[in-house]
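queue> pop job 88
queue> type: inverse folding (structure -> sequence)
queue> payload:
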């Protein structure tokens, strides 16, 4: 296992360089260099992957320009329960540094004590006290009292750097917990932004359904009039009524979704259910903004999960050294100095009441070292596990960025086509109604046209929402949102 760890650590830099070379080469494809998310094609941006400007360096307050959204994020950063729990975890890690730092410093204690002892006369101590006198005329008091006061110290000499490495590992674990907090902030910001845009999309879907209901009810009224004039049948009336009822039912589904998304945002913000302020008008024309993907190596600097994994790997490397040092003997020194007498008035009589000691110990494992071997094997296994985790985190980061950039490009093309589809179907509604009035089209054509137009409008709202979510996700994937 030790050999595997050394090989893995030895080849880790080479593997990372290879990953980023492939990433850099792959990012030169046109679909991976997107600077304007609302552009329908990426022409003119093929060489922008050489640009080291990175969107992740932008503060989230400047990246998200909607004041209602930034207010929600601000509130969440102050009130979110999970984030506050993570802050306490950071405090625990910080206190652990102090605890481990104190372990390799001398321990100095002050002590004071009082004792009363009565020993049997037919014991060694009793016989000695019976036959000896403290002074020429003073016998040992019975029962014998004992008073003491002084200082004691102990210090383990950190010859093998076990304690210092343990302290350094605690520092790295603390820094790792800080990066974990930053990673949580990134996810929290992204989750609130995604929910906010989803809420705006639902508002627009509800507006579209209301607009279509008005058109469908007008069409229903016209069909009823035509039925009275014997130009339409009861079947047509019923079909139009069913379509109206279907969309009225869809309204309640959307309203329920709105309530659930609002409550999801309120939970993230750390408050009880209430209305979420938002401006859903002009959602379909909302500007996406500019994306600068930078270069792949910047992920190491910006992605907090990568930095966290790197710090955890360094900490576990030191913990392995600590576990290895347990095989070596430990050297400790203990000393004490103070005053001791059988009567308090004699405590100040020096040097008669002065006591001191100095002891040096060397202790090393000799037999039955299985527990130490098991801890060392576990430390090696955890270190190798951290290497794999580090590799996985880097690969996952690149895959996320690659997917997000590709998604932005494809959504831009999809949105342009859906926009043309919506325009064509909206025009076809008027045409179908005119043809139906003049008995040149069947009612089913009107129904089908209205249904397709409604679906296309819902779909373009979904596409716009996906564009905004992709805008959030690429920011998160590049490592933005925590600064």
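queue> result:
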């Amino acid at each position: 296992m030790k050999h595997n760890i050394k090989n893995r650590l030895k080849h880790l830099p080479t593997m990372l360089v290879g990953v980023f070379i492939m990433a850099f080469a792959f990012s030169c494809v046109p679909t991976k260099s997107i600077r304007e998310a609302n552009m329908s094609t990426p022409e003119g941006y093929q060489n922008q992957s050489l640009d080291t400007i990175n969107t992740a360096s932008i503060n989230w307050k400047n990246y998200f320009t909607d004041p209602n959204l930034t207010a929600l994020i601000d509130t969440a950063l102050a009130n979110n329960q999970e984030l506050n729990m993570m802050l306490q975890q950071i405090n625990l890690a910080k206190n652990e540094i102090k605890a481990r730092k104190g372990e390799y410093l001398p321990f100095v204690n002050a002590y004071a004590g009082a004792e009363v002892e009565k020993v049997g006369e037919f014991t060694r101590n009793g016989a000695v006290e019976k036959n000896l006198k403290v002074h020429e005329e003073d016998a040992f008091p019975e029962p014998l009292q004992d008073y003491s006061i002084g200082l004691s110290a102990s210090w383990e000499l950190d010859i093998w750097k076990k304690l210092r490495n343990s302290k350094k590992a605690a520092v790295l674990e603390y820094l790792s917990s800080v990066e974990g907090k930053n990673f949580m902030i990134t996810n929290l910001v992204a989750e609130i932004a995604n929910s906010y845009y989803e809420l705006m999309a639902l508002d627009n879907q509800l507006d579209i359904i209301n607009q279509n209901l008005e058109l469908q009810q007008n069409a229903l009224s016209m069909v009823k009039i035509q039925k009275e004039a014997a130009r339409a049948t009861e079947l047509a009336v019923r079909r139009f009524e069913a379509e109206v009822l279907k969309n009225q039912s869809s309204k309640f589904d959307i309203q329920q979704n709105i309530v659930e998304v609002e409550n999801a945002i309120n939970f993230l913000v750390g408050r009880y259910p209430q209305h979420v302020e938002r401006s859903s008008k002009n959602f379909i024309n909302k500007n996406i903004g500019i994306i600068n993907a930078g270069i792949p190596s910047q992920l190491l600097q910006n992605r907090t999960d990568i930095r966290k994994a790197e710090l955890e790997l360094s900490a576990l490397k030191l913990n392995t050294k600590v576990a290895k040092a347990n095989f070596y003997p430990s050297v400790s020194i203990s000393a004490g100095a103070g005053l001791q007498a059988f009567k308090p008035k004699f405590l100040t009589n020096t040097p008669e009441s002065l006591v001191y000691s100095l002891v040096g110990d060397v202790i090393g494992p000799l037999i039955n070292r299985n527990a130490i071997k098991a801890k060392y094997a576990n430390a090696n296994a955890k270190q190798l596990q951290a290497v794999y985790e580090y590799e996985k985190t880097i690969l996952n980061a690149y895959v996320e960025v690659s997917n997000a950039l590709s998604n932005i490009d494809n959504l831009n093309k999809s949105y342009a086509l859906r926009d043309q589809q919506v325009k064509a179907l909206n025009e076809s509604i008027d045409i179908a109604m005119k043809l139906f009035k003049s008995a040149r089209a069947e009612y089913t054509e009107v129904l089908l046209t209205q249904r397709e137009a409604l679906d296309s409008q819902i779909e373009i709202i979904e596409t716009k929402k996906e564009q905004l979510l992709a805008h959030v996700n690429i920011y998160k994937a590049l490592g933005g949102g925590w600064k």
